[in-house]
Structures are given as C-alpha cells and as structure tokens.
Amino acid sequence: MKKHRFRKWMLRGYLAVLTAGCVYPFGPGLDLSNIMVLELRLDYLVHGCLFIPLVMLWRWAYPGHTWRLIIGGCLVLAAGLEGIQFFLSYRSWDINDMIGNACGVFLGAALSGCLRTKGGLTLATYCFYSK
Question: Which DSSP symbol is given to 92?
Fold first, then answer.
C-alpha cells in the first residue's frame, strides 16, 4: 500500500537518527549526566523520551504486527543500541540508560494503544480526540 510506504520511511529515518545518536561522539560540551530533573539525571529522561516515538512509528508503519513483536523488537533494539556503546572508546555503556530506554518503549506502547479504554478507544485516541 502506498500510504504505508511513507510510514515505513518515517520509521527507517527515525531508526537512522537513533543509531547516529548512539555512535556519534558528542564530546565533553554536551553532558546531561550532571543535570537533575525530579531527582533523576536528565540523561535517563532523554533516553526514555527517545524511545517513545519508536513504538508509535512501528505501530503506525506496520499495523498488522502484533504487540509482542513490536514491544519485543523495540526492547531488543533499545538494548542493542546501548550495547553498541560498550565497544566504542568515546562512549560509555550504562545499565541505567538501558533501563531508561526500556521505560520509553513501555510508555510508547501505552500511548500508542497497547492499553485500551473502556469504550474500545486507544489511550492516545481517548486523550487527544475525545470531546
């Protein structure tokens, strides 16, 4: 279907941005580990926020995929992208970053319709389109 072709390219583009952000050497000028928000490092919140759209884009691009496949694939991708940093001398691997990634995946799943409301609407549809 032609409408899904654009959606798939959106997903691929987002995956490319995530991968580039994972391997790009940002340098000492960008350090989010010293900034605290609600007693959490801003770095962990950014990791979580980056993976929220991934689940939504995957569901949008491939509406026939099951939730197990989408969430499982996103979790593997989240762990893999963090695991790549273990092998890069200019990046550091952190289990807390991986936990932040997983939290973003689960939050994205909840927002994109994994959870259903009483009327059969998805949570995101209920929040944004209810009258």
Answer: -
